[in-house]
């Protein structure tokens, strides 16, 4: 009870003295520790992987595919710019579905990528841009902000205090499977994809290359979920390129031989 009163008083102070944006950031940090976020992400991962529609590629059968995926992911994580690089487990898995152009993340660094988007893209720079975008969603704790809007302070406070937390985590995890990010979160993830890739051998505007590929291919019917809240990729392409130029990042294309090997390692 004392702990509850203390937290509620602290929340009241934040509400009274902080701007709306700062309030959201401080409140999320108060309600969800890194440990809470990882626990929540693990629950979401369990939900994803037990769904028979999500055919997780077996790493023992496709070790080369996972070696490529982790090589690319680790290059981004080791850029020196990922805030929770050491704290989050950064579990990355492949879902075997060639008809889906998508990748998504759960809290705590649990990321899933479909074979469809891997095969669709032409270069490792483009794929690195997509992965950097998803890493940014996790690293900036965007899912926590969305959960605050969906469930409100009361439910999340009970989660933090451990009251019926098991049931609540299961309910929250189920809702995260269909979570869409806001325009501001998508813009921030685009910006951070540049920040992350700027300190790697990859083309820093790799995410823009993905959008350009999407436009050229006229794949409107297969548009990924992370485009749904900001459906005009032209603005995103220009913003990403401008950010890379302003930061004086690497704009040269990297070697694509390794990416073709990645695609060849996937099931036909």
Automatic annotation (TrEMBL):
One of its GO terms (cellular component) is membrane. InterPro entries: Mito/Outer_Membr_Metalloprot, Peptidase_M48. GO terms for biological process: proteolysis involved in protein catabolic process. Its cofactor is Zn(2+). Keywords: Hydrolase, Metal-binding, Metalloprotease, Protease, Zinc. Residues 67-243 form the Peptidase M48 domain. The keyword Protease applies. Binds 1 zinc ion per subunit. One of its GO terms (molecular function) is metalloendopeptidase activity. The keyword Cell membrane does not apply. Signal peptide: none annotated. Belongs to the peptidase M48 family. This is Peptidase family M48. It comes from Thermoflexibacter ruber. The lineage of its organism: Bacteria, Pseudomonadati, Bacteroidota, Cytophagia, Cytophagales.
């Amino acid at each position: 009870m004392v702990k509850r009163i203390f937290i509620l008083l602290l929340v009241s102070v934040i509400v009274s003295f902080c701007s709306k944006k700062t309030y959201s950031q401080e409140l999320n940090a108060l309600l969800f520790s890194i440990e809470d976020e990882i626990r929540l992400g693990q629950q979401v991962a369990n939900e994803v992987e037990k769904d028979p529609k999500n055919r997780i590629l077996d790493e023992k059968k496709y070790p080369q595919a996972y070696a490529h995926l982790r090589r690319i992911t680790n290059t981004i994580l080791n850029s020196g710019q990922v805030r929770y690089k050491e704290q989050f487990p950064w579990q990355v898995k492949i879902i075997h579905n060639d008809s889906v152009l998508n990748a998504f993340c759960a809290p705590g660094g649990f990321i899933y990528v479909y074979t469809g988007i891997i095969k669709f893209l032409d270069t490792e720079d483009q794929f690195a841009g997509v992965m950097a975008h998803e890493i940014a969603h996790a690293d900036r704790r965007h899912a926590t902000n969305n959960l605050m809007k969906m469930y409100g302070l009361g439910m999340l406070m009970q989660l933090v205090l451990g009251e019926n937390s098991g049931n609540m985590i299961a309910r929250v995890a189920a809702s995260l499977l269909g979570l869409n990010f806001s325009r501001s979160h998508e813009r921030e993830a685009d910006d951070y994809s540049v920040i992350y890739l700027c300190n790697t051998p990859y083309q820093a505007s790799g995410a823009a290359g993905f959008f350009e590929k999407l436009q050229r291919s006229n794949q409107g019917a297969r548009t990924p979920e992370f485009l749904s809240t900001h459906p005009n990729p032209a603005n995103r392409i220009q913003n990403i390129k401008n950010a890379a130029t302003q930061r004086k990042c690497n704009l040269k294309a990297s070697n694509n031989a390794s990416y073709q090997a990645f695609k060849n390692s996937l099931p036909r």
